[in-house]
Inverse folding.
């Protein structure tokens, strides 16, 4: 049954994943997500699951490929450089249409960078860091509770669309402690039996093969077209976003993840001063709420859009495309592990920094 607890973000994510049906985890340590595998190593055996500390991130993602391909609810987690090492495996998983869940608690970069929060992995996660045409369902939660809610149902979504679901968090979300409501434990006996899963039950003509190698160009082209229909369906059904005080807004701040939460406080400060400011926060980063962003840009009251993020400019590229820049766009960022405050955003909007 549901319960209320004070938990660190990484540990809450791990517990919610287990309650959502995860029974296999493979990963490799890297800050700032280490509490995820630590928690999984202790908790999974208690529910009949399996934990593997892989020898590398490359090994971990391929273990997830195998477990997911056999029909298990499998998950891995890492942080920026580790996710980079997983890119080839992620592309193979997408090509083979294997469901799984991947958590990226982003750290600052490029290179080894630092262990502080960043949003520098947006392009890699949303536009595909690996080879070939593929997409994942990518969420950008802003709180520990939202992490819990999203990952709890992430395995269902992964199985529905037969692709990886990524939780794109950051070091702040992983390390902060918040009170969360944990959902009840899902019963694995109720999970669907997949006709495609290589679980040893297929024989003869019903033999099951998980594959992403197609030598004949026409055959591979048809597969890409079929996958695109899946992505189109996902864009139609899965878009999530938050609009806050946008109905009469003259200035709209748009930000995702932890920065969206910070920006919301900036909106409250500016509203208290009588300024008509609102917030648009995408929750799904892929598919991005492009129609909603475009509609907001076309809103008569809106005079400008402020994009703020923890990178030198990645999410802003998609905002420009979605809105056709029909309203002026200004950009405010912090990088290197630095995080802006609500007051910083307020000062930027007022032209004071």
């Amino acid at each position: 049954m549901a319960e209320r607890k004070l938990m660190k973000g990484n540990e809450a994510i791990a517990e919610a994943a287990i309650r959502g049906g995860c029974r296999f985890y493979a990963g490799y340590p890297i800050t700032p997500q280490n509490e995820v595998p630590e928690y999984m190593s202790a908790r999974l055996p208690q529910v009949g699951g399996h934990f593997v500390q892989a020898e590398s991130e490359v090994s971990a993602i391929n273990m997830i490929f195998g477990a997911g391909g056999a029909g298990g609810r499998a998950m891995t987690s890492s942080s920026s450089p580790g996710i980079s090492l997983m890119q080839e495996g992620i592309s193979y998983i997408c090509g083979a249409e294997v469901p799984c869940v991947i958590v990226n608690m982003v750290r600052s970069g490029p290179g080894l960078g630092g262990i502080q929060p960043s949003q520098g992995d947006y392009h890699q996660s949303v536009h595909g860091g690996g080879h070939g045409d593929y997409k994942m369902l990518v969420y950008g939660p802003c709180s520990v509770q939202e992490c819990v809610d999203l990952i709890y149902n992430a395995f269902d979504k992964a199985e529905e669309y037969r692709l990886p679901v990524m939780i794109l968090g950051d070091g702040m979300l992983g390390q902060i402690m918040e009170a969360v409501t944990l959902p009840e434990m899902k019963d694995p006996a109720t999970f669907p039996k997949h006709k495609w899963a290589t679980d040893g039950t297929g024989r003869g003509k019903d033999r099951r093969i998980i594959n992403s190698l197609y030598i004949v160009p026409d055959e591979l082209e048809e597969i890409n077209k079929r996958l695109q229909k899946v992505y189109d369906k996902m864009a139609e059904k899965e878009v999530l976003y938050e609009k806050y005080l946008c109905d009469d807004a003259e200035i709209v701040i748009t930000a995702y993840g932890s920065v969206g939460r910070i920006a919301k406080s900036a909106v409250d400060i500016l509203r208290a001063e009588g300024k008509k400011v609102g917030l648009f926060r995408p929750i799904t980063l892929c598919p991005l709420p492009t129609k909603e962003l475009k509609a907001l840009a076309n809103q008569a009251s809106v005079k400008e859009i402020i994009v703020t993020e923890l990178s030198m400019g990645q999410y802003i590229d998609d905002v420009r495309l979605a809105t056709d820049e029909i309203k002026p766009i200004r950009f405010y960022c912090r990088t290197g592990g630095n995080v802006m405050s609500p007051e910083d955003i307020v000062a930027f909007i007022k032209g004071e920094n």
In short: Residues 180 and 345 are 28 Å apart (CA to CA). The mean pLDDT is 96. The longest helix spans residues 217-237. The chain has 14 helices and 14 strands.
